[in-house]
Amino acid sequence: MHPSPSPSPSRPSVLFVCVHNAGRSQMAAAFLTHLGEGRVEVRSAGSAPADAVNPAVVAAMAEVGIDIAAETPKVLTVEAVQASDVVITMGCGDACPVFPGKRYLDWTLDDPAGQGVDAVRPIRDEIEARVRGLLADLTA
Hints:
Number of domains: 1
Shape: globular
Strand content: 5-15%
Structural class: alpha/beta
Number of strands: 4
CATH superfamily: Response regulator
Helix content: 25-40%
CATH architecture: 3-Layer(aba) Sandwich
């Protein structure tokens, strides 16, 4: 283990939520984990999780060198929300519980469900750009 660049024991934590936790939230979590290099605690969940991560999403992420093939959709829990500093929703509407004191962002993104890799790429690139902006904000 190499020493952390920050002596602070508390890392910001981010929860990405979409309906199925099979596409957008998985890509966002993977980008933040990859780009954050341990500086941010990352979770993702779905209000109605799918059985598996969208294969086109797995393929699109593999193209940029990030392997999410082993990820599985997880159900959104109250505990996950309470444990997070920033909650980013992606089209889960009223299914996302709201707690005072949390920072909420809603990212309007096309749903990659049922789409091929060609349709997923622009969504992936938009998510990467937003995650880079979020990371710059969180670690400033």
